Amino acid sequence: MVQLFITVVMVIGNVLAYANDRNQSTKEKSEKGTLSADIPVKWSKMTLKILKGTPGGSPTYGSRSLGYMGITMYESVVHGNTSYKSLAGQLNGLASLPQPEKNLKYNWAISLNASQAYLLKQLYEQTSASNKASIDSLENAIYQSEANKEVAQRSATYGQEIAKAIFEWSKTDGGYQGYKRNFDSTYALPSDGGSWQAPPKGQSPVALPLHPFWGKNRTFVSANGELEVPKKIPYSYKKDSDYYSQMYEVYKMRSTLTQEQKEIANWWGDDPSETFSPPGHSYNLATITIVTARADFFKATQTYAKVGMAVADAFINCWKCKYYYHAQRPWYFIFYNIATLWDLYWPEPPFPAFYSGHAAQAAAAATVLANIYGTRFQLTDDSHVGRPMDTERVVEYKARKFNSFWQVAIETADSRMYGGIHTCHDNEVGLKEGTKIGNNVNALSWQI
Fold it and tell me: How many CB atoms within 10 Å of residue 93?
């Protein structure tokens, strides 16, 4: 009974603490000036709204945007907490950033607010007028929360200066305005055995390769740009080969899919034309983690910076590998070598197979999140709750529960095999490469 009483008291205490935390919004929660993560969370949600609601989106361009949004969020407030360290001078090509004036007061929530509003409108200059109005509305509402207009103006100006400096830096990475050149009609695909061809029934209405030169872009972390392209299993149509075995496993999987596996394939499908894409899903998992852990303001900004850069670098490295090997996907091999009547569960995306981008970005995100919040962390992913039922596949979008970030990464990778999109080898290599990328993000000097 005593233990039960203690447990009840602890639960009540946690509930009250959580309610208190939620109610304080941007106000100080303690004498140390700890701020709520409310403002960073609001901007992450706005970012994903714009990412999802802007036509012509791609996982490549979306990942890049999240990388810059995350690092800008962090750098706009980093000088407000002596425990954290600016990444200027550490990131690839970013030598310096504007500094706040000494001995003057700043409202760091206002600084973050201004930085996110400015950069989001620059990265998504092509978005609708109504989306831009939503950005302005959120910015104005948060700006008005500071009663001291001198402090508000100073803070907003500083946030904009950070965003402008980072935006100028972004223009030189190779992916600037990448949404204008999603598909390249001049890119020559190889025609030898085992090479990728545009799918006859693909995810994209355009039968051209997506961003074939994305792998040449500058990575955020120099060490990630120096990683070697991993080796793949050599192509072979012979039945006793490892390559054939990998494809045959995908072929057999299609006929034995359980309802659970179908739900997993749908949950992590993240078609950019319908959702906020795979990197957006990882950015939303960062939000779920922040809210679940009740992280403070500065820890939240660090979380978004790490996840944003991790998924951005993961897509650069993955695309470098995809257009190095030009590896075919399972459908084409199975059609010509195993069974002509076999069909995918999930539509094929418009780029080569090896290695899995889903697996790589999920592993990179899991690696940085575990570094901040621990390897054992319970979370509920409700990213797609509310989506209409997939009547064609008879699948509902129900929240998924996990006990660790790595469990999330593994399920993300598995989802692509369930969909018939990737082999086990694609996924395994993707998870390994994503882990390397996340570790390199973690290795930066984040704290003093």
Answer: 12
* Same domain assignment for residues 50 and 90: yes
Q: Which of 369, 434, 355, 427 is nearest to 402 (CA)?
A: 369
Residue with tokens 């010509």: 336
Are 209 and 238 in the same domain?
yes
Angle at 355 between CA 352 and CA 358, to 5 degrees: 95
11 in any annotated domain:
no
**CA angle (26, 32, 37) in 5-degree steps:** 30
Is residue 152 domain-shared with residue 243, that is, in the same domain?
Answer: no
Report the predicted TM-score, pTM, of the whole model to 2 decimal places.
0.91
Q: For residue 9, tell me if it sits in a domain.
A: no
Same domain, 93 and 237: no
Taking the alpha carbons at both ends of the chain, their separation in whole angstroms is 46
pLDDT, tens digit, for every residue of 160-219?
A: 999 999 999 999 999 999 999 999 999 999 988 899 998 877 777 888 999 999 999 999
Environment class of 354 (CB within 10 Å of its CB; exposed 0-12, middle 13-18, buried 19+): buried
CA 413 to chain centre: 14
**What's the total number of domains in the chain?**
2
Q: What share of the chain is helix, strand, coil (3-state, %, to 5)?
A: 55, 5, 40
